[in-house]
# Entry
Amino acid sequence: MSEKGLMISVSGPSGVGKGTIIEEIRRMFPECKHSISVTTRPPRGEEQDGVEYYFRTKDEFEKLVKEGEIIEYDMYVDNYYGTPATPLIEKSNRGDDVLLDITIAGSLALKRKFPQAVTIFILPPSFEKLEERLKGRGTESLELVQKRLEKAREEVLSAEKFDYVVVNDDLQTAVDNIVAIMKAEKCRYDRLSGIEKTL
Amino acid sequence: MSEKGLMISVSGPSGVGKGTIIEEIRRMFPECKHSISVTTRPPRGEEQDGVEYYFRTKDEFEKLVKEGEIIEYDMYVDNYYGTPATPLIEKSNRGDDVLLDITIAGSLALKRKFPQAVTIFILPPSFEKLEERLKGRGTESLELVQKRLEKAREEVLSAEKFDYVVVNDDLQTAVDNIVAIMKAEKCRYDRLSGIEKTL
# Structure
């Protein structure tokens, strides 16, 4: 029996505070690995292949998609950004946990490809609070806030396809719950299969 | 959506430290309910029906067994001791968590009757350590210690039928893991089904 690392994805609607939650978990678990994306945009400054991103040409990227190597991808300012499968498998096989900051569609694609992945959906405590938070940023027009809210109302309906739901009312409670999920998942018999024969 | 309480069972071989672990969890979560057993032994001293035990006659007990009300039972010094189903359902429906200190067979029966129950198996870090602990009690003959060890070797093979496995190497780590399992289970989408529609 060799213990594999967890693949954990965290997703949620815009404004739900996912970024802050993930930052806090990474602070608490610096040994938890990132998923490095593949992109077709050229490296900037000191960026190195395999560190900030895997840098590939458009042809190479499209070939990776065809081969099923890209779990999910988006296009942004005319460049592809995708999540590659092989580094995830390698990290997990080495026993490293990987925390993925990924879109809702990305989490669902991850779970389809790796049923052993753990998917977490962050919910706002209410849409009123989500609206307050979006407005509180002060960076977006009221119209854009309303658009984001509408999108969030649709997006939360995907929660039922996730393994876990964490309500982000209080940051520390939300982080505690995700840490608990990570600890608990490591105790699932399915992940420790055969441990009783190694004593 | 009304949130149901968890039914959590903790089982493991003799000498594994289950009692101490459960005591510690109860200390941390005094709101966590016990499962009150049904027994055919008469009440002693100040014991009250429905507090220490539900006191029933042998006929009544056997009727409860026939009706499927007793999840599991044992006989000890000519009296039955069993775990009744209805109080568990009632507590869970009220939103109360119930922690069951129960035999391995009892956990398996609980899971069959209530698939939503969470079953945890406590493993020793090794059989050498288990032997040390059993000898350390100093209350049992070496022959009895050997018998218990042999039984434990058989019993641990049931771990695969449990949801979670917790190794009791260090008490605090084992307790932490069980607390994490309880927190995580409360975040499972299955238990919160529909929450996204109540925001």
Observations:
- Helices of chain A lie at 18-28, 58-66, 85-93, 104-113, 127-137, 142-155, 171-185, 189-192.
- The interface with chain B takes residues 120-121, 123-127, 156-157, 159-160, 162-167, 176-177, 179-181, 183-185, 187-189, 192-193, 195-197, 199 of chain A (CB under 8 Å).
- The beta strands of chain A are 7-11, 38-39, 54-55, 70-76, 79-84, 98-101, 118-123, 164-167.
